[in-house]
Amino acid sequence: MLTKEQLDARIVRYGELRPCKTAFIDAHTPGSDQKENFTIIGGGVSESADQHVHIKETPGFNIGAAGQPPICRNSLHSHRTAEVFFVLKGSWDFYWGRWGTAGRVRLEEGDIINIPTGIFRGFQNVGNDYGMIMAILGGDNAGGGVVWAPQVIKDAAGHGLILGENGKLYDSKKGESLPDGVKAMPILTDEELKAYPEPTNAEVVPNHVARYWDLMALAMGAPAKVIGEDAKLRDKPGFEVDLIRDGSISESAYTTARHEILMILRGHWNVTVDGIETILAPGDTMAVPPNASRAMHPSMTGEASMYRVRNTDDDAGSTWVPNQVNK
C-alpha cells in the first residue's frame, strides 16, 4: 500500500515542471535556441548535465515534453526506439526526411503521432503562443540517445556546441572542450545516410497519426485503443496507449500488473490510488505502480480526457517498413 507521501512523489504537476534550455546540440543554433526540454519519467535522451529528471524510475519507457515559443523548431534527428508525441498546447508541424522535406503534418491539441523509428524527424511550434508537446520514448534508456542529421552537427559547431562520442555536450562559450580521450560524435557518411528512409505523407500519416476528436468519438463507452497490437495505430513499441474520456470507464477501482502512466489532456480528474485521493489537472503526469488499486473519474462536468500508457512485453521500437503498418 502506498502512503500519501509516496503517491505525491509519483505525480509531476505541470506547474512544477523544470525546463532545460541546453538539452541538445542545437541549443545555440538560431531558430532552435529558445526551446525547453522536460524529463518527466526516466533519463530521456537529453545530452546535458543540466537536465532535471523528475522521476528516475522507468516503467519500460520514458516520458518527457518539449515547450517552445512560436516559430521555434527542434532540429532533424532520429531515434532507435519509438517516439510518440501528443499536443498539449498549441499547433505543431511535424516533418521528416534527410532535409525535413519528405513529408509534413500539422497536429492540434490532443492529436497524437507515433513517429516511425529510423527516420529523421523535426517539429516546430506554428501557433501564436508558447506550445507544449508531451513525449513517450520507448525503452528504459530511450534507445541510447539521438542520431542527428549531419547539417545539425555542423551548424551547432558554428555556435560553440560539440557533442562527444560519449553522448555529452561541450560548450566552448563556457570554456569547455572535448576531454582527453573523447572524440567528437562522428557525422553520418553518405553511405550511412542511405539507410534512413524518405517516406511520403501517404505512407506515414494514415498509420501513424490519430486525431483527438476521432479518438473522443471512439472512447464514448470504453477507452479508445490508440497505440498497440490491435489499436487504431497498430504498433508494438514496448508500450500501449489508450485515450480515456468522461464515461469511458467505470468509477470502480481496478488493478493491473502493468505500470500505468496517466497524462491529463483536458478537465480535472479525481484519481484514487490505494485509497488515497488526489486531483490531476491538464499537463499533470501520474505514475501508478503495478498491482495498486486505482479508480478515476472527472471531478466536474464538461470535457475531460487523458492518455493512459502501459508497458508491454514487446521490444522498445520497430523499424520502418514502407507501405506497411509497423508490427
Automatic annotation (TrEMBL):
Record's InterPro entries?
Cupin_2 (IPR013096), GPI/OXD (IPR051610), RmlC-like_jellyroll (IPR014710), RmlC_Cupin_sf (IPR011051)
Segments forming domain Cupin type-2: 75-133
Source superkingdom: Bacteria
Q: Does the keyword Ribonucleoprotein apply?
A: no
Q: Which residues form the signal peptide?
A: none
Q: Which UniProt keywords apply?
A: Metal-binding
* Entry keyword Metal-binding: yes
Q: What is this protein called?
A: Cupin domain-containing protein
Organism encoding this protein: Ahrensia kielensis
